[in-house]
Specification:
The complex is a heterodimer of chains A (107) and B (118). Chain A is mostly beta strands and 107 residues long. Helix content of chain A is 0%, strand content 53%. Chain A is built from no helices and 9 strands. Chain B is built from no helices and 11 strands. Classes of the chains: A mainly beta (107), B mainly beta (118).
Amino acid sequence: EIVLTQSPGTLSLSPGERATLSCRASQSVTSSYLAWYQQKPGQAPRLLIYGASSRATGIPDRFSGSGSGTDFTLTISRLEPEDFAVYYCQHYGTSWPFGQGTKVEIK
Amino acid sequence: EVQLVESGGGLVQPGGSLRLSCAASGFTFSGYWMSWVRQAPGKGLEWVANIKQDGSEKYFVASVKGRFTISRDNAKNSLYLQMNSLRAEDTAVYYCATWERWLQFVHWGQGTLVTVSS
C-alpha cells in the first residue's frame, strides 16, 4: 500500500513569499492520479490541483503543481493572506491515501 | 450549484452503531462515484469508503472493513454510511465527497461529527 509523506510539517512564511511543499510516495505512482487540497480551520477541504499539475476550477495561477514518480511539489508563488492553511496531497491507486498534511502559517 | 449535506452524526457509546446520510443536489448524483472521508480532531484526512455509481463496487480502508457499510439511493440522491461496532478511534468529522478518476475528490460537504465515547 502506498504511503504519502509530506514535508515539512509546518512552513512559517510571510505574505508575498514563495511556498514549496513536498509530497513523497513510498513507491512510484501515476501522476495522473495525484491531487492537492487546501483546508482552512472549520472548513471542508478544497481541491487545488489534480493530475499533479492541473489547477482545479477557480484556483488562482499562483498555485502550481509538479513532479512525477515518487516526488511531487505544490508551489505557491506569492503567498496571499488567504493561503495560510493546511495542504494535503492524495493519490488514487489501489487505495485513496492522503499525506499527513503541511501547515503553512504566518511568520 | 453542487451541494452535499451530511447528517446523522452524534455521540455514541463504544460498540454502538450510527448511520450517516449525505443529501446531494445540483448535479447528476447517479453519474458519480461517491466517497466518505473522515478527519479525527486535530488530525489529517483519512479516506474511508467509496461506492460506484450503481453500487456494484465498494471499497473500504482496512480499519473499517467488516464494520462499516456504504450504500446509496440514486432515486433519493442520497449516500449512506452504516457504522457498526464503533470504536473511540472512529471519532471524527465525516465528509461525503464526489470522486472522479481524473480529478479525485472534487466536491465536499461540510461534514458531520461522530463522537464515540462512554
